[in-house]
Amino acid sequence: MNSKQNIQQIKIVYSLKIHTQLQLRGFEYLKVMPNPKNDEYNCWVYEATPAFLDAFDSIVKGEV
């Protein structure tokens, strides 16, 4: 068995605005955790599928 087949690609989202837009587009996060950059905030872990990455790029570019 190829071990690379079992590796899940993830993307960590640190922005509440981006997280909210992703949820409005139907994406569900895998896990929420304390933001390592600032523990007063959370960050969200998503599966980095091609559709997710397209949506993420669109949001970051302001194409909401």
Could you characterize the architecture of this molecule?
This protein has helices at 16-24, 50-60, and strands at 10-13, 31-34, 42-47. The protein is α+β, with helices and mostly antiparallel strands. The chain has one domain (8-60). It has a 3-stranded antiparallel β-sheet with strand order 1-3-2. The longest helix is centred in the C-terminal third of the chain and has 11 residues, at 50-60. The chain starts with 9 loop residues before the first strand and ends with a helix.
Number of strands: 3
> How many discrete structural domains?
1
Q: Give the ordered list of helices and strands.
A: EHEEH
Q: Unreliable segments (pLDDT under 50, ≥5 consecutive)? A: none
User: Looking across the biggest beta sheet, what order are the strands in?
Assistant: 1-3-2
General form:
globular
Beta-strand share of residues: 15-25%
Rg over CA atoms, rounded to whole Å, is 13 Å
For the residues shown, what is the average pLDDT?
A: 91
Largest sheet geometry? 3 strands, antiparallel
What is the distance, rounded to the nearest whole angstrom, between the alpha carbons of the first and last residues? 41 Å
Q: Give the class from helix and strand content and strand pairing.
A: alpha+beta
In helices, the fraction of residues equals 25-40%
Q: Number of DSSP helices?
A: 2
Sequence-ordered SSE layout with sheet pairings:
Layout: E1 10-13, H1 16-24, E2 31-34, E3 42-47, H2 50-60
